[in-house]
C-alpha cells in the first residue's frame, strides 16, 4: 500500500517537467529558484517558463539573491563539506577526499555551479541519485533535480546565465503559501491540502502498524517452523542414540550425507 501511494506521489504531475505560464517579471533566460515552493523555473520568451520540481538542502536554503552560472560539469565529482564530515562522520568521512563522478555520485548526472562576484558561492544546481527526495527539504545538498531534468536544464543554459533565488516574500506573492504534506513534500497550503494532511498522517500510521503486524506474523511463523525443525532434529538423534549435545545441525548432516553418497 505505502509503495504504491509513494510511487503515485513521486510520479504526480506537479513533479513532472513541463512548460507553464510565467507571470513574474524575470527576464527570459533567467533561472529562478523557489526554495519555499520547491520549484525551479527556466524563463522563456512570451510569458512562458520550463518548470522543474526540486529538492532543497541546507546549503540550498543558505543562498539568497542572485548570481551566475560560472561552471558546468557532466558527471561531476563530489566532496562533502568540512561541516558535513564533522557532523556526520559515519556518512561522509570515507568521502572526505572526494568522490569521482558516476552513477552513484550524489551530484548525479549534471551540475551547475553558481558564482557571485567571480567566486564560487558553493551553491549548486545538480541531479540526484535519490529521486524520492524531490519535492522535499533534505538534510544536506543544494538544489536537486531528477537526473533527466538536470540533463535537460544543463543543455538549455550556458555559463553566465543569471540565477535568482526568490525570497519568502516573493514566493508568497507569486506562488502563494506552501506547506509540507504528510510525506514532507511541498504542496500549496489550500484548505483541501490542510484538511487532507491529518488523514494522510493517520494513513501512514495505519500502514506502518499493518506492516509491523505483518512482519511480526512472519517472524512468528518462522519461529514455529524453526522450533518444529529443531524438534525433528533432536528426535532423529534420539532414535540413533546420539546425545542431544552431540546432535549435528542440519547443515552438518546434509554435508555428511552428500559426502557419503559421493563416496
- Count of helix runs: 8
How widely separated are the two ends? 53 Å
- Poorly predicted ranges: 1-7
Average residue pLDDT: 87
- Proportion of β residues? 15-25%
Give a quick account of the main beta sheet: strands, pairing sense, barrel closure: 10 strands, mixed
Rg, nearest Å: 27 Å
* Count of beta strands: 12
Helix/strand/pairing class, anyone? alpha+beta
Order of helices and strands: HEEEEEHEHHEEEHEHEEHH
Secondary-structure map with pairings?
Blueprint: H1 2-10, E1 18-21, E2 31-34, E3 39-43, E4 48-53, E5 55-56, H2 58-62, E6 65-74, H3 82-87, H4 89-92, E7 110-116, E8 119-126, E9 143-144, H5 147-156, E10 162-165, H6 168-174, E11 178-180, E12 186-188, H7 191-239, H8 250-262
Write a brief structural summary.
By secondary structure, this protein is α+β, with helices and mostly antiparallel strands. 39% of the residues lie in helices and 22% in strands. The chain has helices spanning 2-10, 58-62, 82-87, 89-92, 147-156, 168-174, 191-239, 250-262, and strands spanning 18-21, 31-34, 39-43, 48-53, 55-56, 65-74, 110-116, 119-126, 143-144, 162-165, 178-180, 186-188.
Amino acid at each position: 500500500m505505502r509503495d504504491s501511494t509513494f510511487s503515485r506521489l513521486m510520479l504526480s504531475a506537479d513533479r513532472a517537467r513541463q512548460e507553464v505560464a510565467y507571470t513574474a517579471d524575470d527576464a527570459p533566460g533567467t533561472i529562478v529558484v523557489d526554495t519555499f515552493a520547491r520549484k525551479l523555473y527556466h524563463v522563456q520568451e512570451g510569458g512562458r517558463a520550463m518548470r522543474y520540481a526540486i529538492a532543497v538542502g541546507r546549503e540550498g536554503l543558505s543562498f539568497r539573491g542572485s548570481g551566475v552560472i560560472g561552471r558546468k560539469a557532466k558527471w561531476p565529482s563530489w566532496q562533502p563539506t568540512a561541516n558535513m564530515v564533522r557532523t556526520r562522520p559515519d556518512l561522509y568521512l570515507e568521502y572526505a577526499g572526494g568522490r569521482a563522478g558516476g552513477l552513484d555520485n550524489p551530484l548525479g548526472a549534471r551540475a551547475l555551479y553558481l558564482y557571485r562576484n567571480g567566486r564560487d558561492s558553493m551553491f549548486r544546481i545538480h541531479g540526484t541519485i535519490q529521486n524520492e527526495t524531490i519535492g522535499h527539504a533534505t538534510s544536506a545538498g543544494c538544489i536537486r533535480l531528477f537526473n533527466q531534468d538536470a540533463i535537460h536544464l544543463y543543455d538549455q543554459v550556458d555559463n553566465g546565465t543569471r540565477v535568482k533565488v526568490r525570497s519568502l516574500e516573493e514566493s508568497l506573492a507569486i506562488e502563494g503559501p506552501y506547506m509540507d504534506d504528510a510525506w514532507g513534500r511541498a504542496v500549496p497550503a489550500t484548505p483541501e491540502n490542510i484538511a487532507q494532511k491529518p488523514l494522510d498522517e493517520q494513513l501512514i500510521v495505519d500502514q506502518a502498524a499493518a506492516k509491523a503486524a505483518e512482519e511480526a506474523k512472519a517472524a512468528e511463523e518462522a519461529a514455529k517452523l524453526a522450533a518444529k525443525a529443531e524438534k525433528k532434529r533432536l528426535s532423529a538423534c534420539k532414535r540413533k542414540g546420539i546425545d542431544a549435545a552431540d546432535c549435528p545441525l542440519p547443515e552438518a548432516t546434509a554435508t555428511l550425507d552428500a559426502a557419503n553418497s559421493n563416496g
